[in-house]
Amino acid sequence: MTEFDPLRMTRRHFLGSASLGLGALGLAESGAQAAGILRKPAKAKRVIYLFQSGGPAHIDLYDEKPLLRKEHGNQLPTSVIGRQRLTAMSGNQASLPMAGSAFDFARYGKSGMRLSSLLPNIGGVADDICLVRSMWTEAINHDPAMTFFQTGSQIAGRPSMGAWVGYGLGSMNKDLPGFVVLVTKGQGDQPLYARLWGSGFLDSRYQGVPFRAGKDPVLYLKNPEGVSASSRRSVLDTLGVLQQQQSKVSSDPEVDARLAQYELAFRMQTSVPEVTDLSSEPAETFELYGEDARTPGTFAANCVLARRLAEKGVRFIQLYHQGWDHHGDLPGNARYQAKLTDKASAALIIDLKRRGLLDDTLVIWGGEFGRTAYSQGAISKDNYGRDHHPRCFSLWMSGAGMKRGFSYGRTDDYGYNLLDQSGNVITPTKDKFVPGVVHVHDLQATILDQLGIDHHQLTFRNQGRDYRLTDVHGHVVKDLLS
Amino acid sequence: MPHLKLATVVLPCLLAVGLSLASTAANVKSDATVKGIGFNKDIRPILADNCITCHGPDSAARRAGLRLDRRDGLVAKRILVPGNPSASILMQRINAHGVLQMPPASSQRVITREQKQMLATWIRSGANYEPHWAYQPIQLIKTPKGPGNPVDAFINAEITRRKLVPAGSATKREWLRRVSLDLTGLPPTQEDINAFVADSSKGAKETVVNRLLASPAFGEHTSVAWLDLARYGDSYGYQSDQLSPTWPYRDWVIRALNTNMPYDEFIVNQVAGDLRPDATVETKLGTTFQRLHRMTNEGGSVAEEWRMEGVADRVRTTTTAFLGLTFECARCHDHKFDPIKQRDYYALASFVNNVDEYGLYNQSDIVPTPSLLLPTNAQEAAIAGAKDRVATIEKTLSEHKGWSTGGKRIFSPGRPGLTARYRLDDRNGTSFPNSAPGYTEAASAPLGLASTNGVKGSAIQLNGDNALSLGGTGRIARHVPHTVGMWLFDERVDDEQMVVFHGSAGTDVGFHGGDVTIKAGRVTARMYRHWPGNAIAVETKQRIRAKEWTHLTVTYDGSSKAAGYRIYINGVQQETNVVRDHIWKGTGTHAINVGERFRERGFRGGKVDEIEVYNRALTATEVSWMSRGIPAEAPRMLDEVTPADQTAYASAHDEESLAIGKELQDARFAVAAAEDGVREVLAMEEMPGLRPTYVLARGAYDAPKTPDMLVNRQVPSFLQQLRASKPNRLDLAKWMVSNENPLTARVAVNRFWMQLFGRGIVETQEDFGVQGSRPTHPELLDWLAADFRTHDWDVKRLLKMLALSDAYGRTSNVPKQQRQLDPDNKYLTRGPSGRLSAEQIRDTALSIAGLLDRKMGGPPVSPYQPGDLWRETNSMSPAYRESVGTDLYRRSVYSVWKRTSPMVNMLAFDAATREVCTARRPSTSTPLQAFVLMNDVQFAEAARVFAENVLEVAGLDSDNQLRIKRMFLSATGREANAIEVKALSSLLDAQLRYFADRQEDAKLVAAVGKHSVNAKLQRHTVAAWTMVAQAVLNSDACVWKR
After folding, report:
1. Fewest beta carbons less than 10 Å away: which of A225, B229, B499, B1021?
2. C-alpha torsion A150→A155→A157→A163, nearest 10
3. How close A204 gets to chain B, by Cα (Å)?
4. How many helices (H) and strands (E) does chain A have?
5. Best of A92, A158, A236, A269 to mutate (most B CBs within 10 Å, chain B)
6. B399 touching A (Cβ < 8 Å)
7. What does the pLDDT look like over B129-181, one tens digit per residue?
8. Å between A105 CA and nearest CA of chain B
């Protein structure tokens, strides 16, 4: 008699054997389903995350602070900083002069959302976005902060959000990966790391697949030079025979599973170039997203591509736009980055909406932290820089299940501290949920919730512990949900 | 009295309170029975999954003061009533509804009906607890009687007990391929196959195993799993992710495995090779293991935060790799499942916290200290020679008294060596003239600084953010003597360290060069390549007064010794404490800046005046003149002046002394230059004293460090305690490999078991704790562990025993029905099989193609990558420079491993990123794998060259079928069957026709990769055969171990 004891099985073990069957179906099934993780009705079927890497300055984009303009150049009162730590960059600066934004703010949309003049197009869709001005995080340097945002931990080795979602929900299409990564080309600035879209301790099938601008959109997608699709087909057919023989002898289902991956790869050789080729897009698309969308690898082109991938049923589309780390010459730099991102970000919302996709697509726009109210380095009448600021910053979401034309959360008059709903300065901890402020784990919990996943339930046992994207924290911010 | 200690200290912490130690073994045994309910097997998992989070070892999270992980007090409180489930509160609460229900609905945990029945059965039969098996001493199991491999006796007994049927033996070829891949990572060659098939002797298998274990490829392959654990990479792993020259450690691991270093010594060297009484460079190199945690040089990083991250990573890696414990869970709170207290975590951390390190790295070529120098013999000789020369010249100089004879020489007070004198009185915008005779270079404050009243005329008012740059008038370097003097006014805005002046380069994550700082009035002078480990520094005992004009002079004699620094305040030499006194390699040569350094605290609020720079170390007499002025005496004969003035004369005026001094400076430069080329790796080194280690609330580096949080060095309280009263890392290492440690040997044999059988006896290699898998064969595991220890931790002997077992030699090909009886092969009813690892797949392809370059060791190589993926999303990264020639075909263990951008073609096959300790890789199947094996130039080229080689095999004439058979056999180690031959033949025929009509395409296919094209062969023939080779190289028979 053999021992079959499901209670004794670890989840990994269970997945290990369950995946044999899944493999044959390509990427379609979810590991979490196989592990018995329950799902709730979902408002969002897919996510497009427009990650603005480097830390966009909330004070210059989303969170208007007239006081800073009035006090421009004067010392930031030490009472405002309190016991918060500064980075080793500006922490040693002799003076911390307040820096008012170089940009005017105005009311946008029926909701009257106040946004910077740098973002007129996002302003144009203000009534479709849900703006959170009270985001906060613990990390103060880029690498750990981004890793925290994308994997729920500053420590490496955890799955990224897209990998968790793939594990939780599986893919919705048969010939494209479920988790695609798009990076604005040639931006430089703060680096990106493979771990940001890695699968951590989950199977590597949940890794994000970077789609690159240019001839080879997925690494190794193209046949070697001189090898035609027909030759490849013949090789695969022959491989099929070899696999059959092996399968017969070994009775190992993995043999067939592997062949199925080859077939999926073969289909991807057609489907990926098709979806990444924007030449079939009408001129009107480029009017909407901006002419730079014609240049592969621009943020605008990636936004168009994101919409196309969404249409094809890709579950998690992760964009990265590097370039927001403005320690010096913030006005000039922010103006430039806004020019690259504002129009296309708004166009994506408009485009998804008119195609009926916004109702079940969650779009997220934001970086890993905010920037300081004081100037880093020299300040002049119209120029300044800002250092990293984790205590408060802004981020917006749009679509599936989120309130529209809605602003949430408040910061103090300096844009330095979070306020609770009564307007008192608070020092939040991630252990205690305070209505009005949104920790990174709260955001993650909310995103999962909209996808129909209870963030407590989406677990994977590793090293004896059931890990979650939200660690042991996180709270769905119901106030943001329509 | 260690035993008493065990009884009094350990026992209360065991899960099995109420049981005597003597009854332990019996309980463990009963647990292993197949039928009946066992606590460890059945009950503990239910409690662990549903109850222990709130009722477990974590005292902070514990609710209602109740813990269910031990029996203590549960019977008295009637939580458990042995024999009577319904009277047990546990069952009542589990079966309750509403507010009394446990676990509460909000926990979203559910105990199933079957589990409730199991709990009831368990309570009925006495509700006995058992200690967690892995924390119990390794049982001394008798070696099974009878002939044959003892391993088989255990496995066969279990198979019989479970009424399973073992599969028959693998064919000779199957076994040979399997064992070759498992022990060396490479498939057998044609010659290997022929030799083994022809060897009908009884010891044929043993001959093979001996050959494989003796092959250098053994260490190259076996090291990979260890390098995963050691999170070995060739880069620092964060942000800009600069390259880190750590490869000597990789070669050390390979060497240790190949020379069969006993595993206990392997551990001791990696934990404390520096502390062994007989420590050598080789034992010390093992400790690089402790320093391979990632490091950052991201601007703005707080050094202490990252230093603690490094310490935490050491704890995590050490405990996972050696002990199979999930210690990192206890960094922020008591472990939820295992009896690891948060205090245990920090008590263990204190062993690896006593390192004189900074926490950040600065740039790729400056190895963060502590480090180990690995000079070649020639370098060692060159350095010794250079140092000898310095000593000789120093002696010559000290003995040089030529100037004192004759009495004819005249001494005239003056300022010899003065290269800059800034009165700071006349400013020209932001520029200040230099009044040193013969020197013109002005000082400047490019960002602006105000003038204010000074000691004499005007002074400069500093703000801490803007520098007064002295341009090229002074040079700060390790080998160059110098003097800098100035009047300063210390506003003392706070008690933080402030930079008065410096000649250094770097950013806030680390500088190299020299500087003078003030902290609460104490003056420190430093010269360093990497602070604090590679540095000389002195600090004044006295403080200068705040808010008062003070004259400060710092002299440095170029000796690279702390004693070479002198600090004078108001002309009086100060007593100093030596802060650091060991420096090597160059520090760079830097101009002087006053009052500011990039992103550091400058001399804010301070003022400076009358700055003087000299290119020599002034004598005390001369320094006194700087503040008091040069005495207005007429020149006098040398024999009429004081001895101090005579010394000043010798140092400043005597031509011969000056010439010797110049020679000395050159000789000192030569020492640093000789050192510069020496390889240097991160290593462990105990610093003097003991850095206090505190329990950090939530694991945060800035948590309050109060006396009650201070910990002593200690091993986990639930395990056998250390005997040493003031233990160090070496005691920790010895404890790990001691007979009392129940974990190390089990974890080790399980890993080597995994190397051959694919799956450990304990499946969760990374977790031997309560939440880990239970051993499928507990007695076998203990027997192996004890046997391993008894036989001097002999790794090769262990592997040989496993490789020669019948269990390992079974076929993995079984009919479906038989497979389903033991789906995961837990009971070893069939032979092991599994997809090859990333490294094996690449090395196998290269080996089959005859491309593999077997050169061992050395700096990492950079095989094919599609473009510069390193810089594609990281403009701060160094560029990827693809290797040329045979370095494109080295074994994968030598491929450069950039931790933020690892080889994509390796990651596709589940290679670990090496960012953190990884004990086990998953094995997946993805379309990306198909892309890599079909389209990556590395594999496409391997197919092409493989095809060319098969076409060149003599004696096959034009018989394509024979060639196909030959190809299949070399790639898979087995004969192709008729259907396979037929399929490959028709592919070949079709592709021959296809490419015959497409010569241009054929030319491209036949030339893929950098390897030279075989011009003797027809292009379309090579192209067609390349397609056939691709089919074979992608087939299961090649990519899988069967």
Report:
1. A225
2. -20
3. 6
4. 14, 18
5. A92
6. no
7. 988 999 999 999 999 988 889 999 999 999 999 999 999 999 999 999 999 99
8. 30
DSSP for residue A481: B
Name the residue in chain B with its Cα closest to that of A199: B910
Interface test with A, best of B314, B924, B974, B1030 (most A CBs within 10 A): B924
Q: Are B246 and B731 in contact (CB under 8 A)?
A: no
The string of pLDDT tens digits covering residues A418-433 is 999 899 999 998 888 9
- DSSP for B680-712 reads EEE---BPSS---EE--GGG-TTS---GGGEE-
- From the list B796, B883, B914, B903, the residue with the least C-alpha distance to B839 is B903
Please give the pLDDT value at position A406: 98
Q: How far apart are CA A259 and CA A243, in angstroms?
A: 7
Contact map slice: B 965-994 vs A, CB within 8 A: 977, 979-980, 983-984, 986-987, 990-991, 994
| In a domain? residue A266 | no
Q: How many CB atoms lie within 10 A of CB B614?
A: 26
Q: Chain A neighbours among B 1-60 (CB < 8 Å)?
A: 34, 41-42, 45-46
Lowest-confidence region among A378-387, A401-410, B357-366, B411-420 = B411-420
How high is the pLDDT of residue B58? 85
Instruction: Provide the whole-model pTM.
Output: 0.90
Taking the CB of residue B447, how many other CB atoms lie within 10 A of it?
15
Name the least confident of B245-249, B634-638, B824-828: B634-638
Would A389 be classed as within a structural domain?
A: yes
What percent of chain B stands above pLDDT 70?
96
Q: How many domains does chain A have?
A: 1
> How does pLDDT run across B308-347, given as a tens digit for each residue?
999 999 999 999 999 999 999 899 999 988 899 999 999 9
Instruction: List beta partners, residue B450.
Output: B461
Q: Is residue A20 part of a domain?
A: no
- pLDDT at residue number A94: 85
CATH code where residue A58 lies: 3.40.720
The reply to whether residue A156 touches residue B913, judged by beta carbons under 8 angstroms, is: yes
CB contact under 8 A, B1001 and A258: no
Candidates B329, B931, B1030; nearest CB to A221: B931
Question: Between vectors from CA A333 to CA A329 and to CA A335, what angle results, nearest 5°?
Answer: 125
pLDDT at B956: 72
Q: What pLDDT, on a 0 to 100 scale, did the predictor assign at position A241?
A: 96
| Residue A468 clears pLDDT 60, i.e. is over it | yes
Count contacts between A and B (CB, < 8 Å): 306
B932 CB neighbours in chain A (<8 A) are 220
Chain A CB contacts of B1035 below 8 Å: 239, 242-243, 246
Other CB atoms within 10 A of residue A251 CB: 17
Q: How far is A353 from chain B (nearest CA, A)?
A: 31
Per residue in B956-977, pLDDT (tens digit) is 777 899 999 999 999 999 999 9
The tokens for A337 are 């980055």
Look up tokens 């205690």; give the residue: A432
CA distance A248 to chain B (A): 9
Which residues from A are below 8 Å from B774, CB to CB? 8
Q: Is A266 helix (H, G, I), strand (E, B) or coil?
A: helix
pLDDT interval class at B40 (50, 70, 90): confident
- In a domain, residue A135? The reply is yes
Please give the Cα distance from B388 to B379 (Å, whole number).
Answer: 14
Q: What is the mean pLDDT of residues B6-17?
A: 31
Please report the ipTM that was assigned to this predicted complex. 0.87
Domains located in chain B, CATH noted: 2-131 (no CATH), 134-214+739-833 (no CATH), 376-413+636-664 (no CATH), 417-630 (2.60.120.200), 935-1041 (no CATH)
Could you count the other beta carbons within 10 Å of the beta carbon of residue B879?
7
Does B1021 touch chain A if contact means CB atoms closer than 8 Å? no
